[in-house]
Each structure stands twice: as C-alpha cells, then as structure tokens.
Amino acid sequence: MPRSLRAILAAALWIACSEFFRNQVLLLPQWTAHYQRMGLVFPAAPVNGAVWGLWSLCFAIVIFVLSRRFTLAQTAALAWFTGFGLMWLVIGNLGVLPWGILPWAVPLTALEAGVAAWLCHRLG
Fold first, then answer.
1. Of 3, 49, 75, 85, which residue is most buried, by most CB within 10 angstroms?
2. pTM of the predicted protein model
3. Domain locations along the chain
4. What's the farthest any 2 CA atoms get from each other in the chain?
5. What is residue 96's three-state secondary structure?
C-alpha cells in the first residue's frame, strides 16, 4: 500500500473515531436537547454516519495535502481552522450549533486535527 494512502486512511480512521466519540458519546445529550428545543430530531441515522465517514475521508485528504506543504504545527492549525472553525461559523449562523459544547469541542477538535496532522506527517 502506498505511504500516502496509508497516511490518509489512518488519519481518516482517527478522525471518524474522534467524531463518533465526541458527538455520539460525550456530547450527545447537548446535541439532542438543542435539536429538541428547535423542534427537530438530532440526525443520527446510519446514513448520517456514512456522510460523516465520507467527511472524515475528505478531511484526511485535505490534511495530507497540507502536510506536504507545511510544518506539523502549521498543518494542524490550518486543518483545525478549515475543518472546524469554518464549519462552526456556518452552523452557528444557521442556528444549529449548541454553543455550550464549544468548551469541550474546541480542545477535542484541536487534538483531532493535531493527531491527524501527525499521522499524515509520520506515515506519509
């Protein structure tokens, strides 16, 4: 298996597991309560999980590309900003972001982006 593919798949697996733990285990009560207050059901069907799996793969590809051009710290910072900073800006604007999750989500997503960047640098 080519090194680049190994790095991308390892990063994608890490990202998918991190996303699942953060949103479906640790922060699920906050997500479901927020959506319930909006009169909606938090989207947790298998198709939603599949889309998050695709998102994880795409995010890992972006991180890998960044890792070829930037240092580890720069890769992690750019990955975090493009993957999460921009996403939260959009879903915050749409009113579907429960702001109370951010004290947990910010450090956990920084860890997620940092480990994925490290995997891409190390394995790629």
1. 75
2. 0.94
3. 3-123
4. 47
5. coil
